[in-house]
Amino acid sequence: MRELIRSGIYTNKIMILDERGEDNAYHEYEIRSFDKQKVLGNISFQNGPLKENKLNGCFQEDLIEICIDRLRCFQDGDFACRENALALTKLEEALMWLNSRTRDRVIRGVEGKSEQ
């Protein structure tokens, strides 16, 4: 287990729980309170292609969708601000690019497989 070094100002700790997989990414994360005493949440990402490993975790797109939803709620209420609007735009753009990549992989017949 190791701590993810973060650039933000908040002090919750993000711990990486596993080693890099075949895709060179980590798949298991734990969010802990600043003092590392309380587990606030766990995230398990998909480990391996769907067609080869079946569904076994969430996707980064899922987390981006959650953040988009939260920011839209803030923007619809008393916490609307320019910074939230800019963050929302960038998250929507990130989701668009990830979905574009998936559509391209579907068209090429390699989605869900260990192929480029």
Quick description:
By secondary structure, this protein is an alpha+beta fold. The protein is 41% helix and 15% strand. It folds into 2 domains: 1-58; 59-108.
List keywords for this structure.
116 residues; alpha+beta; 2 domains; 4-stranded antiparallel beta sheet; 3 helices
Give the helices and strands, then pairings.
Layout: E1 2-3, E2 13-16, E3 28-32, E4 39-44, H1 50-53, H2 60-75, H3 82-108
Helix pairs in contact: 2-3
Describe what this molecule looks like in 3D:
This protein has 116 residues and is an alpha+beta fold. The protein folds into two domains: 58 residues; 50 residues. It is built from three helices and four strands; from the N terminus they run ββββααα. Strands 1-2-3-4 form a four-stranded antiparallel β-sheet, with no helix packed on it. The mean pLDDT is 92.
What fraction strand? Answer: 5-15%
Query: Sheet with the most strands?
Result: 4 strands, antiparallel
Helix fraction, binned, reads 40-55%
**Unreliable parts:** none
- The beta-strand count equals 4
